[in-house]
Amino acid sequence: METAGSFNQFIFDAIQKYWDQDAMSDYGVSTLQYKDVARIIEKLHILFQHSGVRPGDKVALCGKNQCRWGAAFFAITTYGAVAVPVLHEFHPQSIHDIVNHSDAKLLFVEDKIYQNLNPDEMPQLEGILSIIDYHLFVSRSELLTFARENLNRLFGEKFPMNFRKHHIAPYYADQPEEMAIINYTSGSTGNSKGVMIPYRALWSNRMFAEEVLGSTITQGKKMLSMLPLAHTYGMAYDFIYAFTKGVHIHFLTKLASPTVLMKALADIKPCILIVVPLIIEKVVRKAIMPRLQDPKIRILMMTPVIGDRIRRKICDGLTKALGGNFYEVIIGGSALNKEVEDVLHDIGFRYTVGYGATECSPILAYSDWKTFVKGSCGRPAPRMTLKIDSSDPEHVPGEILAQGMNVMLGYYKNEEATRDTLKDGWYHTGDLGIMDHDGNVFIKGRSKNMLLGANGQNVYPEEIEDKLVGLPLVGECVVIQKGEKFYGLVYPDPDKVKELDLTTSDLETIMEQNRKDLNLIIPNYCSLSGIRLMDQEFEKTPKKSIRRFKYMDYPID
Question: Domains in the chain, please, with CATH?
């Protein structure tokens, strides 16, 4: 079996190799070169050392994507402390709970977020620091106060002859089974749990990226970071891998509205795009599908030669809108809508769908766009083994089980959840799927989401939702069960509702027709008995998955 190398060595080597090169930018604001990141790392190491932080202590980070977040994260891991990334979109009480549960000693937090926090509700913290300039919001330690007030002097004493790359001593010598991160899950099926990620998993995910994309993502190229750094998907590839390859990372520090995003893509022209389905689905539904539904276009697309030219033109337009310079678009985080995928596949767009989980930090399966099989989520990643817990894995869905170097150590201070998830040497994903003879994995749904039909049939609500969301005016939807009946909860597309000036009565009529049309194309045992309109968007996780567990008890009149 392959042995994991040092994760921190990747960071050290990148700083040495790319010293004078741009490392990270807050898009349109400021840039840090590798030597600037190195300086911040050394200063924070001095701060940790003089304030009594030891390897293994927990240090929490809470802020939107930005250079200073990235520099602080590397300072924590290269010191040997345990990083606790906290999604900045969490409610203040959730931030309090995570900081307390993780036993964090320090908290780096964005100034605006700190304004909504109550330090008294985080009594274990020895200090709270600004993630922007590391000034102290709260100090409960004389050592920490001294270290922060004298940081520049201490740095000057340590490096009196200017700071150069040869001055940097090797970083903390991490061991494969040591805990590097406690990452709290997004909670689409329940409350957040603290996933204990070891250094071997960070090393393995970084190596995976090098093995599959190393010839494409090369020194000096650019990437646009859109996914939350506090989530393993964005952290592993938008950030960690890009940094270790000498790629210039651009963080979108503003809300990624269509205008902001399109401008950033045009300016940066990223070498690869790593996104969640929501981004691609919105672009396809608003910019491509209306054109494909034009009767004249539909006829022309069935015509030899002309049809191919139209597809190529549509594909080129989508490619250009997304920056025009990427090798492929990697989609992950949740299921890609089948109708949208059919369009992407039909026009020959360079996309692939991966499969991951926080518990594997995150990669489980992937295929290059050239070998990707439509409808799948790729094949098992290097150093990972997947199997289907089913009597007939190619045809009968079963739980997807995984083992390998990417798998977590367990859940922090939650032995029961760990025992339920790590069994007999296998990580039980909770996802249901099949695997073909070539090893391609096809996800059918979540085991926790599976419903039972009146005659014992397995009903996967995601498959119904995938068809429902393609019907007129359906923006988002969730399928729930009441007794032996199934119902659809629908949040209508607000832009279309406004554009057509529709009343609630109009929407109810349209949704009833949608229900009838849907029931014609799905099995009778899972037909919908009704559709209920929602007056606001469904609550989502930061990776834009609906927190569906919150709607299972929705009252049906």
Answer: 7-195 (3.40.50.12780), 273-325+328-446 (3.40.50.12780), 461-551 (3.30.300.30)
CA-wise closest residue to 478 among 549, 429, 529, 544: 549
What φ, ψ does residue 128 adopt, rounded to 5°? -125, 125
Q: What is this structure's pTM? A: 0.85
Q: How far is residue 386's CA from residue 179's CA, in Å, rounded to a whole number?
A: 23
CA dihedral 291, 295, 296, 301 (to 10 degrees): 70
How far apart are alpha carbons 308 and 305 in whole angstroms?
5
484 closest CA partner among 457, 447, 504? 457
For 282-292, what is each residue's pLDDT tens digit?
A: 889 888 988 88
**Number of neighbours of residue 371 by Cβ within 10 angstroms:** 11
Cα–Cα distance measured from residue 219 to residue 216, given in angstroms and rounded to the nearest whole number:
10
> pLDDT of 136-151, one tens digit each?
999 999 999 999 999 9
Q: Mind listing the pLDDT tens digit for each residue in 268-286?
A: 999 999 998 888 888 898 8
Contact yes or no for 364/381 (Cβ under 8 A): yes
Per-position DSSP letters for 241-292, written without gaps between them: IHHHTT-EEEE--S---HHHHHHHHHHH--SSEEE-HHHHHHHIIIIIHHHH
Give CA–CA dist 64/113, Å, rounded.
Answer: 10
CA dist., res. 440 & res. 112, Å (int): 45
